[in-house]
Amino acid sequence: MNRPILRAEAIILRKDGLAVLVQCDKEESFYRFPGGSVEFGETAVEAIKRELIEEFDLQSDISSLACLNESIVEYDGKMRHDCTILHWGSINDALIQEALNHSEREEIKLTWRTFEQLKQKPLYPEGILDFSSR
C-alpha cells in the first residue's frame, strides 16, 4: 500500500522580490520549490537545509512556516500523495546568477524564475502559486 510522502520545501524570494528560487529539469517542463523528503527524526527546517547542501552545496536561512499543502498527483506514471511543509527562506542571491546544477542528477537545476514564468508551466505542489505570490 502506498503511503503519503512528507516533504519540506522553502519559498525563497530573490531580494528584489521579483523572482522565486525553483528546481526544474533542463527543459523546464515543471517547477518546484527546493527541498525534499523529511527523514525520520529531523524537522522540516533541518530537511530543507540538508537537501540544499546535499543537492546544490548551498547554505540557507530557513525561517517561519509559510503553509502546509496536500496534493495527490501523478508522478512518473504513478499516483503520489504528498504532504508538504513549506517555510520561508533566504540565501545569498549572488550565489545563483544563472543556475546551479544538482550534484547527483544532472537533469535538475536550481534557478530564479518570475511569477509570470511560473504561470507558464506546472508548479508543484499544486495550487501553491496563489499563496507564494501574495
The total strand number stands at 9
Largest sheet, if any?
4 strands, mixed
In total, how many domains does the architecture comprise?
A: 1
Could you give the distance between the termini? 37 Å
Quick description:
This protein has 134 residues and is α/β, with parallel strands linked by helices. The chain has helices at 44-56, 115-118, 128-132; strands at residues 5-12, 19-25, 31-32, 35-37, 61-75, 78-90, 99-101, 108-114, 123-124.
Summarize the structure in words.
With 134 residues, this protein is an alpha/beta fold. It has a single domain (5-132), classed as Nucleoside Triphosphate Pyrophosphohydrolase (Alpha-Beta Complex). The chain is built from 3 helices and 9 strands; from the N terminus they run E-E-E-E-H-E-E-E-E-H-E-H. It has helices at residues 44-56, 115-118, 128-132; strands spanning 5-12, 19-25, 31-32, 35-37, 61-75, 78-90, 99-101, 108-114, 123-124. The mean pLDDT is 91.
Key structural traits:
134 residues, alpha/beta, Nucleoside Triphosphate Pyrophosphohydrolase, 3-stranded antiparallel beta sheet, 3 helices, 9 strands, 45% strand, globular
Set down the secondary structure blueprint.
Blueprint: E1 5-12, E2 19-25, E3 31-32, E4 35-37, H1 44-56, E5 61-75, E6 78-90, E7 99-101, E8 108-114, H2 115-118, E9 123-124, H3 128-132
Parallel strand pairs: 1-6, 3-9
Antiparallel strand pairs: 1-4, 2-8, 5-6, 7-8
